[in-house]
Write a structure and sequence with these properties.
9 helices
Length: 269
């Protein structure tokens, strides 16, 4: 009851927390799906904001919000900044999942599944079947290892204690470099994931081309596609345990980079 009274008396401050949580939820891969009710998103954002509100330090916002709840016109800009922080955090998680989707697309085009595309509910775009498969596996790994809890309980609460609209405006160059490095690591990790299958299929393509050149009457090129599909599935079945470990390493390293970004912005080492 005392906590609810504190929220009512400090409603402008609670709104800052709520906007960041709501912007994060609206951009996360699983919660941003259209099948998830908007009422559930609003309620979940309020639930997260309620537990984060008591641990926040609102001293950076003191010049803009008075004790009686009256705020200046800069409050609207700060509110937009809080929404931007939530969107940036959610966009970084999208980049992580785009790594696995891109790896699936690389493999799909190499094995001849490039035309087999369908609407992916997680990424909300047209995605080849292999991209959807890797996306679903990554989401299962993400949920099984409690990364959602670590994201909301760890990263989100850390962002409240180290990152605000004022610090975001002063450290915007570091945030931009952080997002650009995330995009570069996206393609690097996607190539590492797809390399075993792509390398094997490349060798099969070279061998098929040489045999077709040596014996054109055999028409091995038409038989190469089913062989490549079977070999691709076999290689995937063999390397799946190692891929799961690499998925965990990608999540761990990515969230470690996000935590280090918050530490640098807050002035830590």
């Amino acid at each position: 009851m005392a906590m609810l009274n504190s929220i009512l008396f400090r409603a402008p401050l609670f709104l800052l927390v709520y906007v960041r949580c709501f912007a994060l939820i609206m951009t996360l891969p699983l919660f941003s799906m259209r099948s998830v009710s908007r009422v559930a998103k609003v309620a979940f954002a309020g639930y997260i904001a309620f537990f984060c509100f008591g641990t926040m330090d609102f001293s950076p916002y003191a010049p803009y919000i008075s004790e009686d709840g009256v705020f200046s016109l800069l409050y609207i800009l700060i509110l937009i900044g809080e929404a931007a922080i939530g969107v940036i955090t959610g966009f970084f998680v999208i980049i992580i999942f785009a790594t696995f989707s891109s790896a699936g697309q690389f493999i799909a085009f190499q094995m001849g599944f490039g035309a087999a595309s369908a609407y992916d509910a997680l990424s909300q775009v047209e995605n080849p079947l292999m991209g959807q498969f890797f996306n679903l596996v990554a989401m299962l790994v993400f949920m099984q290892n409690h990364w959602f809890q670590k994201l909301f309980v760890g990263a989100l609460r850390t962002s409240f204690s180290s990152l605000n609209s004022v610090s975001l405006a002063t450290a915007r160059e570091g945030v931009i470099q952080f997002l650009l490095s995330g995009l570069s690591s996206l393609f690097a990790n996607a190539l590492v994931i797809a390399l075993p299958v792509m390398g094997t299929l490349f060798l099969i393509t070279v061998c098929t081309g040489l045999l077709t050149k040596a014996a054109p009457q055999m028409n091995l090129l038409s038989e190469g596609f089913p062989v490549m599909i079977l070999v691709a599935f076999y290689v995937l079945a063999v390397v799946v345990p190692d891929l799961l470990n690499f998925f965990l390493a990608v999540f761990r390293d990515s969230f470690g980079e996000l935590q280090r970004l918050f530490t640098r912005i807050s002035g830590g080492i």
